[in-house]
Amino acid sequence: MTQPIAAALIALLFCVSMLTYLLRYRNTDNEVYSPMAAWNRAINYFCLAYLMGWYFGVWDMVLNNPVATAEHMELDQWWYWVVGVFAWILFSYWGVWARFTIRFDRKLDLLPQIVFGILWGTASGQVFLAWWNIATAVGGGEWATWQVYAFVYAALTFWQWFLMDMFWDIYISPEHDTLFSIGLKVAVTHVPNITITLWFFALYENALIFIALQTLALTGACIMMRMPAPWSKEQHLLARKIPSVFFGLPRCGGYVSPDPENDAYLRAAHLPR
């Protein structure tokens, strides 16, 4: 299957998914978490992310280059980097992120959570690398690596801020954070993730490894927060919304317990009460 045909099929899936959203889930009660609506919104984003990857040449980066060159694999420094970044992702997302995440007794349902994580991670990795190619194009191919890195880092800082704070964490993810854990995760997991993995890519341009790192991180997040399966019939807590500085549009505010001192969920997530 050629890239244009694959992209056309993804575009078709996006159209079907978006039509489903408009006809069925657009007016879903925003006070009740709907797993089907959340998955529908996520699929819309995944399709757009994959199409962004195709349009900005990320597919070419993955398909037309080896996972790593023979020269890379002969370097001890490259191996130190690979082992180090994978160890960091496991520590930060499967360790720190998981420890400070509220699950509210949601069910461990590995298959849909792994599938969601793989889709989310591969989509995110492609978006990040698309920004790399955008920066390269803006610089006319003449920017130094550090200049491309700085451009992409700044772009992704704002991209991820808006995406996660004002869309993902209120319309797709169930409630899984407090204001404290949001700040902690930004400082200890999300910012270091972009900083370290993007620098690894800047050094070696291993696109597939970069996308694998994002996939490992977000698959861990899906499992650890117990992302509900689309067919889940359980009651799930919707993320709390608060006004943002952008025209009062809603943003994620984090869980506020009615009885912090005796809240078992806060205690289980090692969060201050």
TrEMBL record:
Keywords assigned by UniProt, alphabetized: Membrane, Transmembrane, Transmembrane helix
Stretches that traverse the bilayer: 6-25, 37-58, 78-98, 110-134, 146-167, 207-225
Name of the molecule in the record: Uncharacterized protein
